[in-house]
Structure formats: structure tokens, C-alpha cells
Amino acid sequence: MIARRWLALAVLCALALTTGCRRRAPAGTVRVAAAADLARAFEEVGKAFKAKTGASVVFTFHSSGLLAKQIAEGAPFDVYAAAAKSYVDDVVKAGACDASTRAPYGRGRLVVWSKGQPLTAITDLTDPRFAKIAIANPDHAPYGKAAKQALEKLGLWSQVAGRMVYADNVQVTMQWAQDGSADASIVALSLATVTQGGTSVPVDPALHDPLDQELVVCGKGGGSASAKQFAQFVNSPDGRAIMRNYGFRLPGE
Fold first, then answer.
1. 213 half-sphere exposure, CB direction, 13 A CA radius
2. Where are the domain boundaries for CATH 3.40.190.10 in the chain?
3. Bridge-partner residues for 217, per DSSP?
4. β-bridge pairing 133-136 and 164-167
């Protein structure tokens, strides 16, 4: 069982977009597995949390589906923040996380983003000038699934399917549009708002399933006490102020 757990962690570290995986986290360190759309927002939240509590946070950002699979298989994370609450259902059902600690932290929003091509609406993607259109893999990334749903609901999927390129997660999707690997991408508002240059247009949320995002405390390791503090901090007044700046709003905000 122990060997299996460390194998799961090794695979996760190889997949992760940011550094931060450790065989052993220092005492008091909170290990957070978070959806890729949270990369910029949670980095700021982590700094504010450390300033207030003294506890450090180590993040691993990737697609919600792949992170959920690793947590269910024993990857030693203290907090899991998913881009779709269905993945929180999965880790709770697997017995890896504490259902009593789950909490919503915002509803995600989609935008279409392009570095060099002007955009006015998602329907512009049918134009041949968008030879490559990037989305996160719909099989395990909520933002990719929502992007596909929006295109299908508009009747555009058949026109653009041959030009789609699939990234492992929404953060890589953004990077591809930035470096020219794709002519446009459908990404999280939270990433587009902190990306300089380019053009973005909102995607009507009525075109896809709601991106209701939740977090939950997991495991029983050395960071469990601080993990509960971090989870509560995200939805504290200080945490909410940061999250709102990145477009993560709760009902009534």
C-alpha cells in the first residue's frame, strides 16, 4: 500500500505544472491539489494565508479529474480544490476526503482569448483564421467540458472540431494561446484577467453546465490542522476579496 501511494505521488509530480510536490512536507505545511484555473488566485491566497498564520502552502495545479484520481489512489494532499463539485463527490466517496469540510468557493466563467486575432464573440471561431483552437481535455477538465458544451449548444462544434487541440488542463490551454501554439483558446476568466495583451470575450454561462467549484479537506497527515485553517481562509473576508478579483464569486457577491 505504501509503495502504491508513493508511486501515485510520483506520477502526479511528473504531471504537475508547478513545482511543489515533496516526499515529505515540512511540519505545518499545507499541501493543496487545485484545479488549474486557480493557479494565479490561489498563489495570492497562499501568500496572504502565510502572512496571517505563518503556515506555508505548497500547490500542485492540474486538471480536476486527474487530481481526483490521484487523491482517490492515495496521493497525500491536505486540501483538494476542484473546478467541478462532481470531482469532490468522487474523492469523498473514495473515503479520501472529509465530506463535512466541503465548501463552495466560486463559480467559474469561460472566455475566448486570442493573442493576435481580434474577437467579438465565440461565434468568430468558425472563421478559418483560427486554424487551431485550444481547449482543455473535456474528458477530465471541467473547463474543457464546458467549452465543448457551449460550442455544441451554438451548433458550432461540427464546424470547428477538426481544428481543436486539447491541453491537459486549462492553464496549458492559456499558455498555448499565449505562445502561438493555438490561434485562440477557450479558458477560465481567472487566467485571462491576469494575462497581459490579447483579446478576450465572455462566453454566455447559459451555454454550458455551471462551473460550481468546491474545496474539501483530505487525508490525516501532519498538515491536517493547518489544512482546515486554509480551507476556512479561502472563504474568509480576506480570502473572498482575493477570489473576487479573479472572477470567483459566490451567490450574492
1. 30
2. 2-107+212-245, 108-207
3. 79
4. parallel
Match 508513493 to its residue by C-alpha cell.
6
Tell which residue, 13, 83, 14, has the closest CA to residue 42.
Answer: 83
With respect to CATH, is domain 108-207 assigned 3.30.479.10? no
Q: What is the pLDDT of residues 188-234, one digit of tens each?
A: 999 999 898 899 999 999 999 999 999 999 986 545 789 999 999 99
pLDDT per position as a tens digit, 33-46:
999 999 999 999 99
What CA–CA distance (Å, rounded) separates 170 from 130?
18
**Which pTM does this prediction carry?**
0.85
CA dist 222 and 103 (Å) reads 22
Alpha helices in 73-207 (DSSP H): 85-93, 142-153, 157-160, 170-179, 189-192
CB-based contact 221:76 (threshold 8 Å)? yes
The cell for 72 is 482517490
Please state which CATH class domain 2-107+212-245 belongs to.
Answer: alpha beta
Q: How far is CA 151 from CA 53, 64, 176, 181, in A?
A: 44, 21, 19, 21
Beta bridge partners of 114: 199
C-alpha dihedral over 13, 57, 103, 185, to 10 degrees? Answer: -50
Q: For the chain, state the CA radius of gyration.
A: 18
Q: 67 with 197: CB under 8 angstroms? A: no
Contacts of 245 (CB under 8 A, 6+ apart): 41, 193
Compute the Cα dihedral for 219, 20, 146, 103 and give only its sign: positive
